[in-house]
Automatic annotation (TrEMBL):
It comes from Seriola lalandi dorsalis. Mitochondrial S-adenosyl-L-methionine/S-adenosyl-L-homocysteine antiporter. Mediates the exchange of cytosolic S-adenosyl-L-methionine, the predominant methyl-group donor for macromolecule methylation processes, for mitochondrial S-adenosylhomocysteine(SAH), a by-product of methylation reactions. It is a multi-pass membrane protein. Solcar repeats lie at residues 4-77, 177-265. It catalyses: S-adenosyl-L-homocysteine(out) + S-adenosyl-L-methionine(in) = S-adenosyl-L-homocysteine(in) + S-adenosyl-L-methionine(out). It is found in: Mitochondrion inner membrane. The chain crosses the membrane at residues 6-27, 144-165, 177-196, 241-259. GO terms for cellular component: mitochondrial inner membrane. It holds the Pfam family Mito_carr. Keywords: Membrane, Mitochondrion, Mitochondrion inner membrane, Repeat, Transmembrane, Transmembrane helix, Transport. The lineage of its organism: Eukaryota, Metazoa, Chordata, Craniata, Vertebrata. It comes from the Eukaryota. Coiled coil: none annotated. This is Mitochondrial S-adenosylmethionine carrier protein. Its main location: mitochondrion.
Amino acid sequence: MEKREFVASLVAGGCAGMCVDLTLFPLDTIKTRLQSQQGFYKAGGFRGIYAGVPSAAVGSFPNAAAFFVTYECTKSLLGTGGALAAPHAAPVTHMLAASLGEIVACLIRVPTEVIKQRTQASPSSTTYQILLATLREEVHKLQLYFFCVFQIPFSLVQFPLWEYLKTLWSWRQGHTLYSWQAAVCGAFAGAVAAFVTTPLDVAKTRIMLAKAGSTTASGNIPVVLYDVWKSRGLTGLFAGSIPRMTFISVGGFIFLGTYEKVRRTLL
């Protein structure tokens, strides 16, 4: 990967992350409160839907930049030769690149996401108060294990599907896609990935919001999913799926569309 491409991916990824996180923050707050163990209205309802936005603003640029730099570098390395350079192996390349990108991005995303979700579910507390409480009492919640487990399945679905849709559309119209077309592909891929991985997102939200010492706080994903199934059934497992799909679909449009536009402009 050339230096120019590296810088383009870094800047484009960061800009895309800032755009989508700040634009769609209220929808993300509603989704978090719908999945909260204490229930939507007790978690704040429609009050203070911008609670937690400082942590999202601080983490979004470096998080998205780290993901896309890793994603593009991995694609470039795997595509230069060997078995994965063949066209039919492209989905595998995109899966590996997306997985590695998520793992690197976890280093930044985990602490900001814990603080953001806790502030969203406790609108009476400030971001700074939540930060201090988390650092003082529950540093174990910042383990990379949680976020990598939850985010990798999503990326395994979204990015290969996004790349496939772009390739298919480009082939049918006979030229490279415009940025808005790449954005449409991103919206569709995001919606599909969001629905499929909603149960994991419910488990993640429960674990992130759980009090220290509780069964949920231990981070045993199958146990958390079973508890949700036992208490709320299939509806509980897919709680917040509509706002999640809406959020990620619109977010995929903005995120991947902005990324393509900025990256092409810089290149």
